[in-house]
Each structure stands twice: as structure tokens, then as C-alpha cells.
Amino acid sequence: MDKVVASTAQAVTDIASGSSLAVGGFGLCGIPSELINAVHATGVDELRVVSNNCGVDDWGLGILLTAKRIARTTSSYVGENKEFERQFLSGELEVELAPQGTLAERLRAGGCGIPAFFTAAGVGTQVADGGLPWRYSSDGSIALASPPKETREYNGITYVLEEAITTDFALVRALKGDRHGNLVFHESARNFNPLAAMAGRITIAEVEELVEPGELNPDEIHLPGVFVQRVVALTAEEVSNKRIERRTVRPREDVA
């Protein structure tokens, strides 16, 4: 039951080129940055990534993207990464865009063994009708477009069928974790992390604080250890190594 491994390098050693990865976090909040760095250090490429976004140019998944290790990404927001835009428009990267709530539910469904579900999100758009560019050619033409999806009417409302997502591996970050893999996430870091963890066949969690089994109140646990196969305890330096995309506050004026 002890799922703790000694290092991030050991935790990702069996991630091979061509693997699919579900990666937690929203923007740069709650991203498994140390595991991403460890994957980068292995040199694997042709990765197929599922994540809400793809980091920024020099942090998070942006590190893998800049090194051209990612072949395909399924995301809902990609607006903070210029290299992502360049690779997509030049035909170097395949991109499947999904409504954010739909992406979250596809990951959750994958973890729950639900193969597909109907949702109203995207009905009447290219999400349902098909035709969204997935990959461009070098000349700017569309090389691959999304296919149309099944729609069905329930109680007079049209819904579109969305397929669940499962991946070879999942990388997540938690505030606390015990040796059995039970995880607690901090505030807004509890966004895509539990969902990504559920979708991975092998889920690896980097935790800021490792505790012993029984120390976590069962009511405190956000993700049970059944979804987690490996746990890595971060050092104090790694815990403090965090960034945000864009600082939007200004210095507080002194009050006379």
C-alpha cells in the first residue's frame, strides 16, 4: 500500500514516447511542475496531452511544448502561450479544443467508467457539427478537422454526445498526500487535478506535504487513493517554486 517513490525521475521512468498524459492544474495554479520537468528530462516526445491549458512559453507544459515534445493536445484555453499558437498555425501541433465544462466531465467520466455522455454544451456549433481545425498544413489550409458528433433530443432539447477521456498516465499536484495516495488539494488547485487523476491509468501525484496513513481526516480527503498509483514528496525548495501567469495587482498606497 505504500505508494511513495523516491524522486520525480523515478516516478516517470516508464512514460514512453507517444504516451497520453492527463495533467492537472488551471493556468499555472496547481500544475505538477516538478513532474513535468522530470518528463522533460527523460527526452520522450510525441506526447498526447490532455490539460485545461498548455502552460506558458517557459513554464509548466510550455517547457515540453517549446522542446517540441507534444504532438497533440486536448484543451479548453490556450491563450497565454505564443509558442502554442505558432506551432498550431504552422501545422506542427494537433489541437482539439473542448468547452471547459465538457473537458472536465470527459475526464471525470473516464475515471468513472462512463464511456460517453450527452450534454447541451456545443450544440449548434462546430463542436457538434464538426469542422473545427485540429491540424493545419504548412500552407495554412486545414489538414485535419473535427468530425461531426451524434446529437439526440431529450424532452425537446438537443444534446451532443461527448466521449470520455482516459490516458496512459496522469500527473497532478496536491497540498497533502499520504502513503496510500489519498490527496488533499489547496483551494483553487482543486480544479482539474482530481479529474485528471481519475482519468489516468497510472496516476502520479507530487505532494507538498507527505503525511502518514490515518493523519488525514476522511472528510478532508478530496481524492481517494484508489485513483493514485505513485506519490512523490516535494522538497521545501520545490514547494516554493511557483509562478502565476500575469500579475494584475498594484502596490498598495500608504495610508496617511
UniProtKB/TrEMBL annotation:
Protein name per Swiss-Prot or TrEMBL: Unannotated protein
GO molecular function annotation: succinyl-CoA:3-oxo-acid CoA-transferase activity
Pfam families: CoA_trans (PF01144)
InterPro entries: 3-oxoacid_CoA-transf_A, CoA_trans_fam_I, NagB/RpiA_transferase-like
NCBIfam families: pcaI_scoA_fam
One CC-aspect GO term: mitochondrion
